[in-house]
Design brief:
CATH architecture of the largest domain: 3-Layer(aba) Sandwich
CATH topology of the largest domain: Rossmann fold
Distance between the termini: 52 Å
Helix content: 40-55%
Strand content: 15-25%
Number of domains: 4
Oligomer: single chain
Shape: globular
Strand order of the largest sheet: 11-12-10-13-14-9-15
C-alpha cells in the first residue's frame, strides 16, 4: 500500500515529461500568441521551456535615481511624468519620457520606436534598465530595457529577479513570462533523463530545478548554474545524436579496407614536387590508418589558408587507386572543383591514376563519356560539384568520398553522395579555422586532423584598414601591381544594386558612421572600368553567373588576360592565382573575421608579398573597427576564429542557416570548455556501451536525443 503514491507520482512525472513534446497550444495564454510564438520558433512545450532569458533585471538591487551613477548600468523604478514624441528628421522618430522617483529626474529616449508613446502614459510606473549618461542637465538612458509595472500577477516577480526573454512583434516580455510560468506550472516537474551519477559527478542541478531556476532564479548565481545544466544537456544530446547517426549509418555496412602502400602511392610520392611537412605527413598517416582499418572512416581535416590540404587529399586518392576502387571529391563551387582538377590532375596523371571533372558546365557529349567510364570503373577519381549527385552519375565501386567545406552543403546533398557508395570512407575538409570547442561540439562524431602551418608561406600578406576617403591608396597599389605584371581583386558584399540580401545573409547590421547601402560588384566593375582603374582589364565574377561564365572568367584571370577581378565572396575558398598580390574589400565591417581571413588568403601566394585593404566607414573605437584591427595584428586563422566565435553565433560562423544544421542555443563555446569536454567524454562512454541507445537504461536519454536533434536521424533515413 505504501508504494502506491510513489508509483502514482512517478506516473504523473512521466506524463509531464512526455508533454514536453506536445503542441504549445496546450499552455495557457499560448493560443492568443500563436503567430508571434511561431516566429520565435516556439512550436512545442519543450521549446518554451528552453526559450531562456537573454538577461535579468535584479530588482533586489534597485537604486534610486539619485544613486544611478553616470557611465554605469543601473535599474530604476520610476513614475512617468511626461511623454513626448519628436521627429527631428523625416526618417527619425524619438519618444522621450521624463521620469522621477522622488530622489531625482531621469530622461529615457527611444529611437525609431514610435509605438512606445502608445504603450506608456503619464502616471505609469515603469522599470528602466540601461547605461546612465548625462546630457542637457539631466541623467539619461538611451533606448533602455523598459517594462510597465503594476500588474498584480507580476508583483511577486518584481520583488526578486525579473527575467527578460527574447520576444518579437506581437508579444511582450510580460506575456512571455506568463506563458513560461504556465509551462512550468503544467509540466515543469519532469523526470531527469540524465543518469544520477552524471548529475552528481559533475555537480549539476536536477533538470526540473534547472528549468525553474533559469527562468525565475533567486540569484544571478542560481541562474548561472541552471544555464550550465541546460547547456550540458544540449551538448550531450548533440554528441549522442551525432554518434548514434554514425552508428546507424555504418550498421550492416561492410567497411572497405584500403591498400595504403601500393605502387600508385609510391608513384604519387615521386610525382609530388615537394616533401610533405611534418603536419601534412601526420594528417596523411592518420587518414591512411583509418582507410586501412576495418571500420568506416569519418575524419575532418581542418586546415588554415594555404596549409596544403589538397596535397594530403591526394595521398588518400592514391590509396583508392591502389585498392582498385573509386573516389569522389565534391567541392561547393565549380571554380573550386576546377581548381582541384587543375592542381591534382597532373599529379594523378604522373601516378597513372585516371580522373575526370564533372560540373554543371560539362558539355553533354563529354559528360556522357565520363558517365560511361565511371560506371565501368575505368575512371578512378571524379572531381565535381553537386553535379556528382545526379542520378546519371553511377560508380562501379565508390569507397572514398571527400567533401570540401562540408558546411556549405545541405544534409540531403551529403547523404545523396554517400548513397552512391555504401560503407565509403568519408573525409571532410574545411579551410575555415574552427576553434577546438566548436570542433568538439559540432563534429564530435568524427576524428580531427589539423594543419596550422603553411608549407609555402609565399612572401606574406600585409593588412591595412582604410576609410572611404583613403580608398585611393588601394587604387594606387592596384595600378602599381598591374604595371609590375601582377593582378588584383576587388570584393563587394552585394551582387548588384537591386540585391535585397542574398549576399547579406550573414552580414551584421551597419554601425553608426557607415553608409546604409553596401557596394555591389556589378556596379563596381563598371565604375572602376570607367573611372579609378580605367585602362586596366577588369573582369566580374559573382555567384549568380552560370557555371560556364564563372569558369571562363577564372580561366582568363589565371591566364593573366584580366588584371583586376571584381567579385563577391565566391572567391573566398580555394582560389589560387599566385600572380594576385593586391585585394580591396569594400564594406569590410559587414563580413565576419573568418570570411575576411579566407578572402585575404587569395593574395600573396606566390613570390611577391600581398597587401589587403579593408575599407570601412566605421569609427575608431567601435566593435566593428576593433574586429578589423585584429586582422591587421595577426595572420593566425585559429586565433581569429576564437575571436570570431566571441562575436558571432557558431551557426553563423559555420554557415548553418544555409545548410540545414542545428544551432546550439544554450552553450557559450568560450566559457563552457569544461562542459564541452565532459559531454564529449560522457557521450563516447555511453556510445561504447550502447551505440544505438537501445538499452532500457538509456531509454530516457534516447527519447531526449531524438526529440531535440531528430534532424540527424531524418538525414540517415534519407540515405
Amino acid at each position: 500500500m505504501g508504494s502506491t503514491p510513489a508509483i502514482g507520482e512517478a506516473q504523473d512525472r512521466l506524463a509531464r515529461t512526455l508533454a514536453l513534446s506536445e503542441d504549445v497550444t496546450r499552455l495557457r495564454y499560448a493560443k492568443r500568441f500563436l503567430e508571434p510564438l511561431e516566429r520565435l520558433g516556439l512550436a512545442r512545450v519543450r521549446d518554451v521551456l528552453l526559450h531562456v532569458p537573454h538577461r535579468y533585471l535584479d530588482f533586489t538591487n534597485l537604486v534610486p535615481v539619485s544613486h544611478a551613477d553616470v557611465g554605469r548600468e543601473a535599474t530604476v523604478v520610476v513614475t512617468v511624468d511626461e511623454v513626448r514624441s519628436k521627429r527631428p528628421r523625416p526618417r527619425l522618430s524619438v519618444v522621450e519620457l521624463a521620469c522621477t522617483d522622488g530622489t531625482g529626474v531621469i530622461m529615457a529616449s527611444f529611437f525609431k520606436q514610435p509605438w512606445i508613446a502608445e504603450q506608456i502614459h503619464r502616471g505609469d510606473v515603469v522599470a528602466l534598465s540601461g547605461k546612465v549618461t548625462f546630457r542637457m542637465g539631466f541623467k539619461q538612458m538611451s533606448s533602455p530595457f523598459h517594462e510597465v509595472l503594476g500588474d498584480a500577477s507580476d508583483q511577486g516577480v518584481y520583488a526578486r529577479i525579473l527575467p527578460v526573454h527574447p520576444v518579437g512583434e506581437g508579444i511582450s516580455a510580460a506575456w512571455m513570462r506568463r506563458i513560461v510560468s504556465a509551462a512550468l506550472a503544467d509540466v515543469g516537474d519532469v523526470c531527469d533523463f540524465l543518469p544520477a551519477d552524471l548529475v552528481a559527478g559533475h555537480r549539476l542541478m536536477t533538470l526540473s530545478r534547472a528549468l525553474r531556476a533559469i527562468h525565475f532564479p533567486d540569484s544571478s548565481e542560481e541562474a548561472g548554474q541552471a544555464r550550465r545544466r541546460l547547456a550540458y544537456d544540449e551538448l550531450l544530446c548533440l554528441q549522442l545524436a551525432l554518434l548514434c547517426r554514425r552508428h546507424v549509418e555504418t550498421s550492416g555496412v561492410e567497411p572497405f579496407e584500403h591498400v595504403v602502400d601500393g605502387p600508385r602511392m609510391r608513384a604519387l610520392d615521386a610525382a609530388l614536387p615537394f616533401e610533405l611537412t611534418d603536419e601534412q605527413a601526420l594528417a596523411a598517416h592518420e587518414i591512411l590508418a583509418d582507410m586501412a582499418a576495418p571500420q568506416v572512416m569519418g575524419r575532418l581535416l581542418l586546415g588554415d589558408v594555404g596549409t596544403g590540404k589538397t596535397a594530403v587529399a591526394a595521398v588518400a586518392l592514391a590509396a583508392v587507386a591502389d585498392s582498385g576502387t573509386q573516389a569522389a571529391v565534391m567541392a561547393p563551387t565549380s571554380v573550386l572543383a576546377g581548381q582541384y582538377a587543375s592542381k591534382l590532375g597532373p599529379l594523378l596523371d604522373r601516378a597513372a591514376i585516371s580522373w575526370a571533372l564533372v560540373t554543371g558546365a560539362t558539355p553533354a557529349a563529354e559528360r556522357s563519356r565520363i558517365r560511361e567510364a565511371v560506371a565501368a570503373g575505368r575512371t578512378t577519381v571524379v572531381f565535381g560539384t553537386t553535379a556528382l549527385l545526379s542520378d546519371d552519375i553511377e560508380f562501379r565501386r565508390l569507397t572514398f568520398v571527400c567533401v570540401d567545406e562540408q558546411h556549405r552543403f545541405g544534409v540531403d546533398q551529403r547523404a545523396a553522395l554517400r548513397r552512391k557508395g555504401a560503407g565509403a570512407d568519408l573525409l571532410t575538409m574545411t579551410a575555415t579555422p574552427i576553434p577546438r570547442t566548436l570542433a568538439l561540439s559540432v563534429y564530435g562524431d568524427v576524428a580531427c586532423s589539423r594543419l596550422t602551418r603553411r608549407p609555402n608561406p609565399g612572401a606574406g600578406i600585409a593588412t591595412q584598414v582604410i576609410t572611404p576617403e583613403n580608398v585611393d591608396l588601394a587604387y594606387g597599389a592596384i595600378r602599381e601591381a598591374v604595371e609590375a605584371g601582377q593582378q588584383a581583386y576587388v570584393v563587394c558584399p552585394l551582387v548588384d544594386d537591386q540585391d535585397e540580401g542574398e549576399e547579406l545573409d550573414d552580414v551584421p547590421a551597419p554601425e553608426q558612421g557607415r553608409a546604409a547601402r553596401p557596394h555591389a560588384a556589378t556596379a563596381m566593375a563598371g565604375s572602376l572600368a570607367r573611372g579609378a582603374l580605367k585602362g586596366l582589364r577588369t573582369g566580374l565574377l559573382t555567384g549568380r553567373m552560370s557555371v560556364a561564365e564563372k569558369d571562363d572568367v577564372m580561366s582568363r584571370f589565371r591566364a593573366g588576360s584580366i588584371d583586376v577581378l571584381v567579385s563577391t565572396t565566391v572567391i573566398e575558398v580555394g582560389v589560387d592565382v599566385p600572380a594576385a598580390t593586391v585585394m580591396l574589400v569594400w564594406d569590410a565591417d559587414r563580413f565576419g573575421l573568418a570570411t575576411l581571413h579566407q578572402l585575404r588568403g587569395r593574395v600573396g601566394r606566390g613570390d611577391v608579398s600581398g597587401v589587403v585593404y579593408l575599407e570601412s566607414g566605421t569609427r575608431k573605437g567601435t566593435p566593428a573597427r576593433a574586429r578589423l584591427s585584429a586582422l591587421e595584428e595577426t595572420s593566425d586563422g585559429f586565433e581569429l576564429a576564437e575571436l570570431d566565435l566571441k562575436l558571432r553565433h557558431e551557426g553563423e560562423l559555420l554557415g548553418y542557416r544555409q545548410s540545414g544544421g542545428v544551432s546550439l542555443r544554450l552553450v557559450d563555446l568560450e566559457a563552457d570548455f569544461d562542459l564541452i569536454d565532459w559531454a564529449h567524454a560522457d557521450a563516447r562512454a555511453i556510445s561504447r556501451e550502447d551505440p544505438g541507445l537501445a538499452l532500457p537504461a538509456h531509454a530516457p536519454i534516447s527519447y531526449e536525443v531524438r526529440d531535440r536533434f531528430g534532424v540527424y536521424f531524418e538525414e540517415v533515413r534519407g540515405q
